[in-house]
Write a sequence for this structure.
Protein backbone atom coordinates (compact mmCIF):
# COMPACT_ATOMS: atom_id res chain seq x y z
CA UNK A 1 0.00 0.00 0.00
CA UNK A 2 2.96 2.21 0.66
CA UNK A 3 3.62 1.94 -3.05
CA UNK A 4 0.32 3.36 -4.19
CA UNK A 5 0.11 6.02 -1.49
CA UNK A 6 3.32 7.55 -2.58
CA UNK A 7 2.09 8.29 -6.06
CA UNK A 8 -0.37 11.03 -6.72
CA UNK A 9 -2.93 10.20 -9.38
CA UNK A 10 -2.43 12.60 -12.26
CA UNK A 11 -5.64 11.78 -14.05
CA UNK A 12 -8.91 10.46 -12.86
CA UNK A 13 -10.27 9.74 -16.31
CA UNK A 14 -11.73 6.38 -17.33
CA UNK A 15 -9.14 3.64 -17.09
CA UNK A 16 -8.80 1.25 -19.97
CA UNK A 17 -8.76 -2.02 -18.16
CA UNK A 18 -5.93 -3.98 -19.71
CA UNK A 19 -6.07 -6.88 -17.30
CA UNK A 20 -9.66 -7.57 -18.31
CA UNK A 21 -8.74 -7.28 -21.97
CA UNK A 22 -6.00 -9.87 -21.49
CA UNK A 23 -8.35 -12.12 -19.56
CA UNK A 24 -10.89 -11.94 -22.34
CA UNK A 25 -8.23 -12.62 -24.93
CA UNK A 26 -7.08 -15.65 -22.97
CA UNK A 27 -10.66 -16.93 -22.58
CA UNK A 28 -11.36 -16.38 -26.26
CA UNK A 29 -8.18 -18.06 -27.42
CA UNK A 30 -8.74 -21.00 -25.06
CA UNK A 31 -12.27 -21.41 -26.43
CA UNK A 32 -11.03 -21.12 -30.02
CA UNK A 33 -8.14 -23.51 -29.41
CA UNK A 34 -10.30 -26.07 -27.65
CA UNK A 35 -12.84 -25.93 -30.45
CA UNK A 36 -10.08 -26.49 -33.01
CA UNK A 37 -8.72 -29.46 -31.08
CA UNK A 38 -12.17 -31.04 -30.63
CA UNK A 39 -12.96 -30.52 -34.30
CA UNK A 40 -9.69 -32.09 -35.43
CA UNK A 41 -10.10 -34.92 -32.96
CA UNK A 42 -13.57 -35.73 -34.32
CA UNK A 43 -12.28 -35.55 -37.88
CA UNK A 44 -9.40 -37.85 -36.97
CA UNK A 45 -11.88 -40.40 -35.59
CA UNK A 46 -14.12 -40.22 -38.65
CA UNK A 47 -11.61 -40.11 -41.49
CA UNK A 48 -9.12 -42.73 -42.53
CA UNK A 49 -7.82 -44.36 -45.68
CA UNK A 50 -9.69 -47.61 -45.04
CA UNK A 51 -13.12 -46.24 -44.23
CA UNK A 52 -14.95 -42.97 -43.63
CA UNK A 53 -17.34 -43.11 -40.71
CA UNK A 54 -20.02 -40.48 -39.99
CA UNK A 55 -19.68 -38.41 -36.83
CA UNK A 56 -22.65 -40.01 -34.96
CA UNK A 57 -21.44 -43.49 -35.94
CA UNK A 58 -17.90 -42.73 -34.83
CA UNK A 59 -19.04 -41.34 -31.48
CA UNK A 60 -21.44 -44.25 -31.06
CA UNK A 61 -18.66 -46.74 -31.79
CA UNK A 62 -16.40 -44.94 -29.33
CA UNK A 63 -18.99 -45.01 -26.54
CA UNK A 64 -19.86 -48.67 -27.09
CA UNK A 65 -16.18 -49.64 -27.28
CA UNK A 66 -15.51 -47.88 -23.99
CA UNK A 67 -18.53 -49.54 -22.38
CA UNK A 68 -17.20 -52.91 -23.56
CA UNK A 69 -13.81 -52.03 -22.03
CA UNK A 70 -12.19 -52.55 -25.41
CA UNK A 71 -13.14 -56.26 -25.59
CA UNK A 72 -14.93 -58.04 -28.51
CA UNK A 73 -15.11 -54.99 -30.74
CA UNK A 74 -16.80 -54.84 -34.14
CA UNK A 75 -15.16 -53.30 -37.20
CA UNK A 76 -16.09 -49.65 -36.55
CA UNK A 77 -15.28 -49.90 -32.86
CA UNK A 78 -11.89 -51.41 -33.66
CA UNK A 79 -11.11 -48.67 -36.12
CA UNK A 80 -12.21 -45.80 -33.90
CA UNK A 81 -11.24 -47.06 -30.48
CA UNK A 82 -8.15 -49.19 -31.07
CA UNK A 83 -6.55 -47.50 -34.04
CA UNK A 84 -7.65 -43.90 -34.61
CA UNK A 85 -8.17 -42.65 -31.06
CA UNK A 86 -4.78 -43.65 -29.59
CA UNK A 87 -3.05 -42.31 -32.64
CA UNK A 88 -4.93 -39.02 -32.39
CA UNK A 89 -4.23 -38.70 -28.66
CA UNK A 90 -0.52 -39.26 -29.25
CA UNK A 91 -0.47 -36.64 -32.01
CA UNK A 92 -2.24 -34.25 -29.65
CA UNK A 93 0.20 -34.83 -26.82
CA UNK A 94 3.22 -34.44 -29.07
CA UNK A 95 1.74 -31.25 -30.56
CA UNK A 96 1.25 -29.81 -27.08
CA UNK A 97 4.71 -30.86 -25.93
CA UNK A 98 6.69 -29.63 -28.92
CA UNK A 99 4.90 -26.27 -28.94
CA UNK A 100 5.46 -25.69 -25.24
CA UNK A 101 9.09 -26.76 -25.48
CA UNK A 102 9.58 -24.44 -28.46
CA UNK A 103 8.00 -21.49 -26.66
CA UNK A 104 10.18 -22.07 -23.60
CA UNK A 105 13.41 -22.38 -25.57
CA UNK A 106 12.65 -19.28 -27.64
CA UNK A 107 12.01 -17.21 -24.52
CA UNK A 108 15.01 -18.46 -22.56
CA UNK A 109 17.40 -18.12 -25.47
CA UNK A 110 15.61 -14.95 -26.64
CA UNK A 111 15.91 -16.01 -30.23
CA UNK A 112 12.95 -16.55 -32.52
CA UNK A 113 14.74 -19.11 -34.68
CA UNK A 114 15.12 -21.64 -31.91
CA UNK A 115 13.17 -24.91 -32.06
CA UNK A 116 12.72 -27.73 -29.50
CA UNK A 117 15.73 -29.54 -30.93
CA UNK A 118 18.22 -26.73 -30.39
CA UNK A 119 19.84 -28.43 -27.41
CA UNK A 120 20.73 -31.50 -29.47
CA UNK A 121 17.78 -33.60 -28.30
CA UNK A 122 16.72 -34.74 -31.76
CA UNK A 123 20.21 -35.64 -32.89
CA UNK A 124 20.86 -37.60 -29.70
CA UNK A 125 17.53 -39.40 -29.85
CA UNK A 126 17.94 -40.10 -33.56
CA UNK A 127 21.43 -41.52 -33.15
CA UNK A 128 20.34 -43.79 -30.32
CA UNK A 129 17.26 -44.94 -32.20
CA UNK A 130 19.23 -45.68 -35.38
CA UNK A 131 21.70 -47.66 -33.30
CA UNK A 132 19.06 -50.01 -31.96
CA UNK A 133 17.04 -50.22 -35.18
CA UNK A 134 20.00 -50.84 -37.45
CA UNK A 135 22.14 -53.00 -35.18
CA UNK A 136 19.45 -54.75 -33.13
CA UNK A 137 20.98 -53.81 -29.82
CA UNK A 138 18.60 -55.07 -27.12
CA UNK A 139 20.34 -53.92 -23.94
CA UNK A 140 21.56 -57.49 -23.38
CA UNK A 141 18.14 -59.07 -23.77
CA UNK A 142 16.28 -56.56 -21.58
CA UNK A 143 13.96 -55.70 -24.47
CA UNK A 144 12.66 -57.81 -27.34
CA UNK A 145 14.39 -56.93 -30.62
CA UNK A 146 12.47 -54.37 -32.75
CA UNK A 147 10.12 -53.57 -29.88
CA UNK A 148 8.75 -50.01 -30.00
CA UNK A 149 9.58 -49.64 -26.30
CA UNK A 150 13.20 -50.46 -27.00
CA UNK A 151 13.45 -47.74 -29.62
CA UNK A 152 11.51 -45.29 -27.47
CA UNK A 153 13.55 -45.96 -24.37
CA UNK A 154 16.85 -45.67 -26.21
CA UNK A 155 15.73 -42.54 -28.01
CA UNK A 156 14.68 -40.95 -24.71
CA UNK A 157 18.04 -41.80 -23.17
CA UNK A 158 19.89 -40.61 -26.29
CA UNK A 159 18.01 -37.32 -26.33
CA UNK A 160 18.67 -36.65 -22.66
CA UNK A 161 22.30 -37.69 -23.07
CA UNK A 162 22.82 -35.17 -25.87
CA UNK A 163 21.08 -32.54 -23.75
CA UNK A 164 23.34 -33.35 -20.79
CA UNK A 165 26.44 -32.99 -23.00
CA UNK A 166 25.14 -29.66 -24.28
CA UNK A 167 24.50 -28.38 -20.75
CA UNK A 168 27.92 -29.54 -19.61
CA UNK A 169 29.74 -27.72 -22.41
CA UNK A 170 27.53 -24.63 -22.09
CA UNK A 171 27.98 -24.34 -18.34
CA UNK A 172 31.73 -24.68 -18.73
CA UNK A 173 31.62 -21.96 -21.39
CA UNK A 174 30.02 -19.52 -18.98
CA UNK A 175 26.35 -20.52 -19.01
CA UNK A 176 25.20 -17.62 -21.16
CA UNK A 177 22.34 -18.09 -23.60
CA UNK A 178 24.76 -17.89 -26.51
CA UNK A 179 26.86 -20.67 -25.08
CA UNK A 180 23.72 -22.86 -24.83
CA UNK A 181 22.90 -22.31 -28.49
CA UNK A 182 26.46 -22.84 -29.72
CA UNK A 183 27.13 -25.96 -27.70
CA UNK A 184 23.70 -27.31 -28.66
CA UNK A 185 24.54 -26.90 -32.32
CA UNK A 186 27.97 -28.46 -31.93
CA UNK A 187 26.79 -31.44 -29.89
CA UNK A 188 23.92 -31.89 -32.33
CA UNK A 189 26.37 -32.00 -35.24
CA UNK A 190 28.48 -34.59 -33.46
CA UNK A 191 25.51 -36.88 -32.91
CA UNK A 192 24.24 -36.33 -36.46
CA UNK A 193 27.62 -37.30 -37.86
CA UNK A 194 27.61 -40.48 -35.79
CA UNK A 195 24.11 -41.19 -37.04
CA UNK A 196 25.16 -40.73 -40.67
CA UNK A 197 28.05 -43.16 -40.22
CA UNK A 198 25.71 -45.73 -38.70
CA UNK A 199 23.20 -45.33 -41.53
CA UNK A 200 25.93 -46.10 -44.04
CA UNK A 201 26.58 -49.41 -42.32
CA UNK A 202 22.93 -50.19 -41.59
CA UNK A 203 22.30 -52.17 -44.79
CA UNK A 204 18.66 -53.15 -45.25
CA UNK A 205 17.65 -51.77 -41.88
CA UNK A 206 18.16 -48.26 -43.23
CA UNK A 207 14.52 -48.04 -44.39
CA UNK A 208 13.05 -48.63 -40.96
CA UNK A 209 15.64 -46.34 -39.41
CA UNK A 210 14.70 -43.56 -41.80
CA UNK A 211 11.03 -44.18 -41.18
CA UNK A 212 11.61 -43.56 -37.49
CA UNK A 213 13.70 -40.48 -38.17
CA UNK A 214 10.99 -38.86 -40.29
CA UNK A 215 8.46 -39.18 -37.52
CA UNK A 216 5.20 -41.08 -37.57
CA UNK A 217 2.27 -41.96 -35.35
CA UNK A 218 1.41 -45.13 -37.26
CA UNK A 219 2.62 -47.61 -34.66
CA UNK A 220 0.97 -46.06 -31.62
CA UNK A 221 -1.29 -48.26 -29.50
CA UNK A 222 -3.08 -47.62 -26.22
CA UNK A 223 -0.17 -48.92 -24.16
CA UNK A 224 2.14 -46.28 -25.54
CA UNK A 225 -0.38 -43.45 -25.49
CA UNK A 226 -0.33 -43.31 -21.71
CA UNK A 227 3.43 -43.23 -21.64
CA UNK A 228 3.42 -40.13 -23.88
CA UNK A 229 0.18 -38.41 -22.91
CA UNK A 230 0.46 -38.33 -19.13
CA UNK A 231 4.03 -37.06 -18.64
CA UNK A 232 3.97 -34.67 -21.61
CA UNK A 233 0.69 -33.05 -20.59
CA UNK A 234 1.71 -32.94 -16.92
CA UNK A 235 5.06 -31.28 -17.67
CA UNK A 236 3.48 -28.89 -20.17
CA UNK A 237 0.81 -27.78 -17.70
CA UNK A 238 3.48 -27.45 -15.02
CA UNK A 239 5.46 -25.08 -17.22
CA UNK A 240 2.50 -22.67 -17.28
CA UNK A 241 3.38 -21.86 -13.70
CA UNK A 242 6.40 -19.92 -14.96
CA UNK A 243 4.68 -17.98 -17.74
CA UNK A 244 5.28 -14.65 -16.02
CA UNK A 245 8.94 -15.40 -15.42
CA UNK A 246 9.28 -16.23 -19.11
CA UNK A 247 8.06 -12.67 -19.80
CA UNK A 248 10.64 -11.35 -17.39
CA UNK A 249 13.61 -13.02 -19.08
CA UNK A 250 12.64 -11.28 -22.35
CA UNK A 251 14.11 -8.13 -20.79
CA UNK A 252 17.53 -9.75 -20.71
CA UNK A 253 19.48 -11.51 -18.00
CA UNK A 254 20.51 -8.41 -16.02
CA UNK A 255 17.06 -6.88 -15.87
CA UNK A 256 15.39 -10.16 -14.92
CA UNK A 257 17.95 -10.57 -12.18
CA UNK A 258 17.55 -7.07 -10.78
CA UNK A 259 13.78 -7.64 -10.68
CA UNK A 260 14.36 -10.50 -8.28
CA UNK A 261 14.58 -13.61 -10.46
CA UNK A 262 17.46 -16.02 -9.95
CA UNK A 263 18.10 -16.14 -13.69
CA UNK A 264 20.76 -18.82 -13.81
CA UNK A 265 18.68 -21.26 -11.81
CA UNK A 266 15.53 -20.40 -13.71
CA UNK A 267 17.19 -20.83 -17.13
CA UNK A 268 18.58 -24.19 -16.14
CA UNK A 269 15.24 -25.38 -14.76
CA UNK A 270 13.33 -24.34 -17.87
CA UNK A 271 15.89 -25.87 -20.25
CA UNK A 272 15.72 -29.17 -18.38
CA UNK A 273 11.93 -29.08 -18.42
CA UNK A 274 11.74 -28.27 -22.13
CA UNK A 275 14.34 -30.89 -23.05
CA UNK A 276 12.52 -33.53 -21.03
CA UNK A 277 9.30 -32.70 -22.84
CA UNK A 278 10.88 -32.78 -26.29
CA UNK A 279 12.76 -36.01 -25.53
CA UNK A 280 9.49 -37.68 -24.52
CA UNK A 281 7.83 -36.42 -27.71
CA UNK A 282 10.66 -37.65 -29.90
CA UNK A 283 10.95 -41.04 -28.19
CA UNK A 284 7.79 -42.67 -29.54
CA UNK A 285 7.04 -40.62 -32.62
CA UNK A 286 10.39 -39.69 -34.10
CA UNK A 287 11.54 -36.28 -35.14
CA UNK A 288 8.67 -34.01 -36.12
CA UNK A 289 9.99 -30.67 -37.26
CA UNK A 290 8.53 -27.22 -37.50
CA UNK A 291 5.67 -27.51 -34.97
CA UNK A 292 7.79 -26.33 -32.08
CA UNK A 293 9.26 -23.50 -34.13
CA UNK A 294 6.16 -22.18 -35.80
CA UNK A 295 3.30 -22.60 -33.33
CA UNK A 296 4.67 -20.29 -30.61
CA UNK A 297 5.29 -17.67 -33.31
CA UNK A 298 1.77 -17.97 -34.68
CA UNK A 299 0.51 -17.32 -31.17
CA UNK A 300 2.87 -14.40 -30.56
CA UNK A 301 1.98 -12.79 -33.84
CA UNK A 302 -1.72 -12.94 -33.02
CA UNK A 303 -1.64 -12.30 -29.25
CA UNK A 304 1.60 -10.43 -28.58
CA UNK A 305 4.56 -11.44 -26.47
CA UNK A 306 2.89 -12.21 -23.12
CA UNK A 307 3.56 -15.86 -22.29
CA UNK A 308 0.47 -16.07 -20.12
CA UNK A 309 -1.45 -15.97 -23.40
CA UNK A 310 1.15 -17.51 -25.70
CA UNK A 311 1.75 -20.70 -23.73
CA UNK A 312 -1.87 -21.90 -23.34
CA UNK A 313 -2.76 -21.09 -26.93
CA UNK A 314 0.45 -22.74 -28.19
CA UNK A 315 -0.59 -25.96 -26.47
CA UNK A 316 -4.00 -26.06 -28.12
CA UNK A 317 -2.84 -24.85 -31.51
CA UNK A 318 0.05 -27.32 -31.50
CA UNK A 319 -2.33 -30.17 -30.73
CA UNK A 320 -4.74 -29.12 -33.49
CA UNK A 321 -1.96 -28.61 -36.04
CA UNK A 322 -0.38 -31.99 -35.43
CA UNK A 323 -3.77 -33.73 -35.54
CA UNK A 324 -4.34 -32.10 -38.92
CA UNK A 325 -0.88 -33.03 -40.12
CA UNK A 326 -1.29 -36.66 -39.07
CA UNK A 327 -4.64 -36.78 -40.81
CA UNK A 328 -3.00 -35.47 -43.97
CA UNK A 329 -0.19 -38.01 -43.61
CA UNK A 330 -2.74 -40.82 -43.54
CA UNK A 331 -5.13 -39.52 -46.19
CA UNK A 332 -3.12 -37.79 -48.91
CA UNK A 333 -1.76 -40.85 -50.72
CA UNK A 334 -4.03 -43.85 -50.16
CA UNK A 335 -2.01 -46.88 -49.26
CA UNK A 336 1.00 -44.86 -48.13
CA UNK A 337 1.87 -43.27 -44.81
CA UNK A 338 3.63 -39.98 -45.46
CA UNK A 339 6.12 -38.80 -42.84
CA UNK A 340 4.19 -36.42 -40.60
CA UNK A 341 7.23 -34.21 -40.09
CA UNK A 342 7.30 -33.45 -43.82
CA UNK A 343 3.59 -32.58 -43.73
CA UNK A 344 3.99 -30.15 -40.83
CA UNK A 345 6.78 -28.42 -42.70
CA UNK A 346 4.84 -28.22 -45.95
CA UNK A 347 1.77 -26.76 -44.18
CA UNK A 348 3.81 -24.58 -41.89
CA UNK A 349 6.23 -22.81 -44.19
CA UNK A 350 3.74 -20.79 -46.27
CA UNK A 351 1.76 -19.78 -43.17
CA UNK A 352 4.91 -18.75 -41.42
CA UNK A 353 6.28 -16.89 -44.43
CA UNK A 354 3.00 -14.98 -44.75
CA UNK A 355 3.05 -13.99 -41.08
CA UNK A 356 6.70 -13.06 -41.22
CA UNK A 357 6.10 -10.76 -44.15
CA UNK A 358 2.98 -9.16 -42.75
CA UNK A 359 3.76 -9.06 -39.02
CA UNK A 360 7.49 -9.66 -38.79
CA UNK A 361 8.26 -6.06 -37.82
CA UNK A 362 7.60 -6.80 -34.17
CA UNK A 363 10.73 -8.93 -34.05
CA UNK A 364 13.01 -6.17 -35.20
CA UNK A 365 15.77 -4.97 -32.95
CA UNK B 1 16.15 14.63 4.63
CA UNK B 2 13.49 14.14 7.25
CA UNK B 3 15.26 11.38 9.14
CA UNK B 4 18.98 11.40 9.69
CA UNK B 5 19.41 7.63 9.35
CA UNK B 6 21.26 7.02 6.08
CA UNK B 7 19.34 5.31 3.29
CA UNK B 8 22.40 3.72 1.75
CA UNK B 9 25.57 2.94 3.61
CA UNK B 10 28.69 1.37 2.09
CA UNK B 11 31.20 0.05 4.57
CA UNK B 12 34.68 -0.73 3.23
CA UNK B 13 33.19 -2.16 0.03
CA UNK B 14 35.72 -4.15 -1.93
CA UNK B 15 35.38 -6.11 -5.13
CA UNK B 16 38.05 -8.20 -6.79
CA UNK B 17 36.97 -10.07 -9.92
CA UNK B 18 37.89 -13.70 -10.48
CA UNK B 19 40.59 -12.67 -12.93
CA UNK B 20 42.25 -10.61 -10.19
CA UNK B 21 41.04 -7.20 -11.35
CA UNK B 22 40.51 -5.00 -8.31
CA UNK B 23 37.51 -2.93 -9.39
CA UNK B 24 36.36 -1.36 -6.12
CA UNK B 25 38.81 -0.59 -3.30
CA UNK B 26 37.63 0.00 0.23
CA UNK B 27 34.81 2.42 -0.59
CA UNK B 28 32.83 3.81 2.35
CA UNK B 29 30.16 6.49 2.30
CA UNK B 30 26.56 6.97 3.21
CA UNK B 31 23.69 8.69 1.45
CA UNK B 32 20.57 10.10 3.06
CA UNK B 33 17.11 9.67 1.59
CA UNK B 34 15.63 12.10 -0.94
CA UNK B 35 18.69 13.13 -2.92
CA UNK B 36 19.81 13.05 -6.51
CA UNK B 37 23.38 11.83 -6.35
CA UNK B 38 25.81 11.95 -9.25
CA UNK B 39 28.48 9.28 -9.56
CA UNK B 40 31.41 10.62 -11.52
CA UNK B 41 34.67 9.10 -12.64
CA UNK B 42 36.56 7.97 -15.73
CA UNK B 43 35.66 4.82 -17.66
CA UNK B 44 36.67 1.73 -15.72
CA UNK B 45 36.87 3.50 -12.36
CA UNK B 46 34.46 1.04 -10.74
CA UNK B 47 31.20 2.97 -10.95
CA UNK B 48 29.23 0.17 -12.55
CA UNK B 49 30.82 -2.52 -10.40
CA UNK B 50 29.96 -0.56 -7.28
CA UNK B 51 26.36 -0.20 -8.41
CA UNK B 52 26.20 -3.91 -9.19
CA UNK B 53 27.43 -4.69 -5.68
CA UNK B 54 24.69 -2.50 -4.23
CA UNK B 55 21.89 -4.41 -5.91
CA UNK B 56 23.52 -7.82 -5.53
CA UNK B 57 24.21 -8.41 -9.20
CA UNK B 58 27.74 -9.05 -7.98
CA UNK B 59 28.78 -10.25 -4.57
CA UNK B 60 31.38 -7.94 -3.03
CA UNK B 61 34.60 -9.61 -1.93
CA UNK B 62 34.77 -7.45 1.19
CA UNK B 63 32.80 -4.93 3.20
CA UNK B 64 29.08 -4.47 3.47
CA UNK B 65 26.16 -2.67 1.82
CA UNK B 66 23.35 -1.49 4.08
CA UNK B 67 20.01 -0.12 3.00
CA UNK B 68 17.87 1.42 5.75
CA UNK B 69 20.36 -0.03 8.19
CA UNK B 70 19.99 -3.64 6.97
CA UNK B 71 22.64 -5.50 5.02
CA UNK B 72 21.61 -6.51 1.51
CA UNK B 73 24.09 -9.37 1.46
CA UNK B 74 21.76 -11.65 3.39
CA UNK B 75 18.67 -10.72 1.40
CA UNK B 76 17.19 -12.79 -1.43
CA UNK B 77 17.15 -11.29 -4.95
CA UNK B 78 13.40 -10.76 -4.57
CA UNK B 79 13.84 -8.79 -1.35
CA UNK B 80 16.58 -6.65 -2.88
CA UNK B 81 14.34 -5.97 -5.89
CA UNK B 82 11.85 -4.21 -3.62
CA UNK B 83 14.59 -1.91 -2.30
CA UNK B 84 16.82 -1.21 -5.26
CA UNK B 85 15.86 -0.69 -8.90
CA UNK B 86 18.31 -0.43 -11.77
CA UNK B 87 17.93 1.54 -14.99
CA UNK B 88 20.31 0.21 -17.64
CA UNK B 89 21.93 2.45 -20.24
CA UNK B 90 20.21 0.56 -23.04
CA UNK B 91 17.84 -2.36 -23.17
CA UNK B 92 15.95 -4.30 -25.79
CA UNK B 93 13.00 -6.54 -25.18
CA UNK B 94 12.58 -9.65 -27.30
CA UNK B 95 9.39 -10.69 -29.09
CA UNK B 96 7.66 -7.35 -29.36
CA UNK B 97 6.94 -6.74 -25.69
CA UNK B 98 4.98 -3.48 -25.53
CA UNK B 99 5.77 -0.40 -23.45
CA UNK B 100 2.90 -1.18 -21.11
CA UNK B 101 3.97 -4.80 -20.65
CA UNK B 102 7.58 -3.76 -20.07
CA UNK B 103 6.69 -1.23 -17.40
CA UNK B 104 4.28 -3.69 -15.80
CA UNK B 105 7.17 -6.15 -15.39
CA UNK B 106 8.58 -3.61 -12.95
CA UNK B 107 5.83 -4.75 -10.60
CA UNK B 108 7.16 -8.33 -10.70
CA UNK B 109 8.79 -8.24 -7.23
CA UNK B 110 5.35 -7.66 -5.73
CA UNK B 111 3.50 -10.19 -7.87
CA UNK B 112 5.61 -13.32 -7.86
CA UNK B 113 2.88 -15.77 -6.98
CA UNK B 114 -0.13 -14.42 -8.82
CA UNK B 115 -1.09 -14.98 -12.43
CA UNK B 116 -2.60 -11.56 -13.25
CA UNK B 117 -1.67 -8.13 -11.99
CA UNK B 118 -4.27 -6.29 -9.92
CA UNK B 119 -6.15 -3.14 -10.92
CA UNK B 120 -4.00 -1.20 -8.47
CA UNK B 121 -0.91 -2.29 -10.38
CA UNK B 122 -2.55 -1.29 -13.60
CA UNK B 123 -3.49 2.20 -12.46
CA UNK B 124 -0.05 2.66 -10.92
CA UNK B 125 1.53 1.77 -14.26
CA UNK B 126 -0.83 4.06 -16.16
CA UNK B 127 -0.14 6.98 -13.83
CA UNK B 128 3.57 6.39 -14.15
CA UNK B 129 3.38 6.26 -17.95
CA UNK B 130 1.59 9.62 -17.86
CA UNK B 131 4.08 11.04 -15.39
CA UNK B 132 6.97 10.17 -17.69
CA UNK B 133 5.19 11.29 -20.84
CA UNK B 134 5.04 7.89 -22.53
CA UNK B 135 1.35 7.11 -21.99
CA UNK B 136 0.52 7.53 -25.67
CA UNK B 137 3.24 5.00 -26.57
CA UNK B 138 1.97 2.26 -24.30
CA UNK B 139 0.93 -0.18 -27.02
CA UNK B 140 4.07 0.26 -29.12
CA UNK B 141 6.75 -2.44 -29.01
CA UNK B 142 9.64 -1.22 -26.86
CA UNK B 143 12.14 -1.82 -29.63
CA UNK B 144 10.35 0.57 -31.99
CA UNK B 145 10.87 3.61 -29.74
CA UNK B 146 13.60 6.20 -30.09
CA UNK B 147 16.45 6.10 -27.55
CA UNK B 148 15.04 9.05 -25.63
CA UNK B 149 11.58 7.52 -25.38
CA UNK B 150 12.99 4.15 -24.43
CA UNK B 151 15.08 5.68 -21.65
CA UNK B 152 11.96 7.24 -20.16
CA UNK B 153 10.17 3.89 -20.33
CA UNK B 154 13.06 2.23 -18.52
CA UNK B 155 12.95 4.89 -15.81
CA UNK B 156 9.18 4.37 -15.54
CA UNK B 157 9.75 0.63 -15.14
CA UNK B 158 12.20 1.22 -12.32
CA UNK B 159 9.79 3.72 -10.76
CA UNK B 160 6.89 1.26 -10.50
CA UNK B 161 9.31 -1.13 -8.83
CA UNK B 162 8.89 1.37 -5.99
CA UNK B 163 12.45 1.18 -4.71
CA UNK B 164 14.12 3.12 -1.94
CA UNK B 165 17.19 3.52 -4.10
CA UNK B 166 17.36 3.82 -7.86
CA UNK B 167 20.61 3.10 -9.67
CA UNK B 168 20.80 4.75 -13.09
CA UNK B 169 23.71 3.80 -15.32
CA UNK B 170 24.67 6.39 -17.96
CA UNK B 171 21.08 7.37 -18.76
CA UNK B 172 21.96 10.05 -21.29
CA UNK B 173 24.83 8.42 -23.16
CA UNK B 174 22.77 7.86 -26.34
CA UNK B 175 20.80 11.09 -26.18
CA UNK B 176 20.99 14.56 -27.67
CA UNK B 177 21.10 17.60 -25.41
CA UNK B 178 17.35 18.08 -25.33
CA UNK B 179 16.73 14.53 -24.18
CA UNK B 180 19.65 14.73 -21.74
CA UNK B 181 17.94 17.60 -19.96
CA UNK B 182 14.61 15.83 -20.28
CA UNK B 183 15.88 12.67 -18.58
CA UNK B 184 17.57 14.67 -15.82
CA UNK B 185 14.36 16.60 -15.19
CA UNK B 186 12.47 13.34 -14.76
CA UNK B 187 15.11 11.97 -12.40
CA UNK B 188 15.07 15.24 -10.46
CA UNK B 189 11.25 15.12 -10.18
CA UNK B 190 11.37 11.60 -8.79
CA UNK B 191 13.64 12.51 -5.95
CA UNK B 192 10.89 14.48 -4.30
CA UNK B 193 9.53 11.15 -3.11
CA UNK B 194 11.39 9.40 -0.31
CA UNK B 195 13.76 7.81 -2.77
CA UNK B 196 17.39 8.46 -3.54
CA UNK B 197 18.60 8.29 -7.12
CA UNK B 198 22.22 7.46 -7.83
CA UNK B 199 23.23 8.36 -11.40
CA UNK B 200 26.49 7.36 -13.04
CA UNK B 201 27.16 9.80 -15.84
CA UNK B 202 30.04 11.27 -17.83
CA UNK B 203 28.60 14.74 -18.41
CA UNK B 204 30.01 16.54 -15.36
CA UNK B 205 28.34 19.88 -16.13
CA UNK B 206 24.98 18.17 -16.32
CA UNK B 207 25.63 16.33 -13.05
CA UNK B 208 26.80 19.49 -11.32
CA UNK B 209 23.65 21.26 -12.37
CA UNK B 210 21.12 18.65 -11.28
CA UNK B 211 22.70 16.71 -8.42
CA UNK B 212 22.50 17.48 -4.70
CA UNK B 213 25.60 15.47 -4.06
CA UNK B 214 28.52 14.18 -6.06
CA UNK B 215 30.43 10.96 -5.47
CA UNK B 216 33.74 10.99 -7.31
CA UNK B 217 35.74 7.83 -7.94
CA UNK B 218 39.11 7.03 -9.44
CA UNK B 219 40.64 3.61 -10.01
CA UNK B 220 38.16 1.91 -7.70
CA UNK B 221 38.61 4.29 -4.78
CA UNK B 222 36.48 7.10 -3.48
CA UNK B 223 38.12 10.48 -4.14
CA UNK B 224 35.57 12.98 -2.92
CA UNK B 225 31.96 13.28 -1.89
CA UNK B 226 30.00 16.49 -1.42
CA UNK B 227 28.20 19.45 -2.94
CA UNK B 228 29.16 19.51 -6.65
CA UNK B 229 29.72 23.28 -6.63
CA UNK B 230 32.38 22.83 -3.98
CA UNK B 231 33.84 19.47 -4.94
CA UNK B 232 34.29 19.92 -8.68
CA UNK B 233 37.44 21.97 -9.20
CA UNK B 234 40.11 22.17 -11.86
CA UNK B 235 42.52 20.38 -9.52
CA UNK B 236 40.07 17.51 -9.00
CA UNK B 237 39.40 17.08 -12.72
CA UNK B 238 43.11 16.99 -13.53
CA UNK B 239 43.67 14.45 -10.74
CA UNK B 240 40.78 12.16 -11.63
CA UNK B 241 40.70 12.43 -15.42
CA UNK B 242 44.28 13.53 -16.12
CA UNK B 243 42.79 16.33 -18.17
CA UNK B 244 43.31 20.09 -18.01
CA UNK B 245 39.87 21.66 -17.80
CA UNK B 246 38.33 25.03 -17.18
CA UNK B 247 35.76 24.94 -14.42
CA UNK B 248 33.62 28.07 -14.35
CA UNK B 249 30.22 29.44 -13.54
CA UNK B 250 27.79 30.76 -16.13
CA UNK B 251 25.53 33.82 -15.79
CA UNK B 252 22.96 31.81 -13.80
CA UNK B 253 25.63 30.63 -11.39
CA UNK B 254 25.59 27.07 -12.83
CA UNK B 255 28.90 25.26 -12.90
CA UNK B 256 30.34 24.11 -16.22
CA UNK B 257 33.37 22.03 -17.10
CA UNK B 258 35.24 22.53 -20.35
CA UNK B 259 37.91 19.90 -21.02
CA UNK B 260 40.98 21.36 -22.76
CA UNK B 261 43.94 19.06 -22.90
CA UNK B 262 44.93 15.52 -21.93
CA UNK B 263 47.87 15.64 -19.55
CA UNK B 264 48.38 11.97 -18.76
CA UNK B 265 50.52 9.45 -20.55
CA UNK B 266 49.29 9.16 -24.14
CA UNK B 267 47.93 5.71 -24.79
CA UNK B 268 48.07 5.77 -28.57
Amino acid sequence: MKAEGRLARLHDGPIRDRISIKRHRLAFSLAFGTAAVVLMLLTALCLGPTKIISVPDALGALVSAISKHGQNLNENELLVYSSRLPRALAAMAVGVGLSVAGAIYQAIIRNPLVDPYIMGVSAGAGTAAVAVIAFEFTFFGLFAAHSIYLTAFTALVGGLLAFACTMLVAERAGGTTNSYVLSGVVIGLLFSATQTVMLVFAGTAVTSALQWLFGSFSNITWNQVWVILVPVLALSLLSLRWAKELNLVLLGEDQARQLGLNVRRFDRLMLILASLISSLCVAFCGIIGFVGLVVPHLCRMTLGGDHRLVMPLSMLLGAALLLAADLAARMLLPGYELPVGAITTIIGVPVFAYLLVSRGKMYEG
Amino acid sequence: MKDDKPLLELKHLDKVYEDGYHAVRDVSYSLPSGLLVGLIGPNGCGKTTMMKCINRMHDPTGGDVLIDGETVLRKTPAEVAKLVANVPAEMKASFGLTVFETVMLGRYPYLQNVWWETHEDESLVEDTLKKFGVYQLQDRPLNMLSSGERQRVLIAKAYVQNPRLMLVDEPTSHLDMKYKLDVMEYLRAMVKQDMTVLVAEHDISLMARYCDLCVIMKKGSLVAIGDPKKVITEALISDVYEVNASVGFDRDGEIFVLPKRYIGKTQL
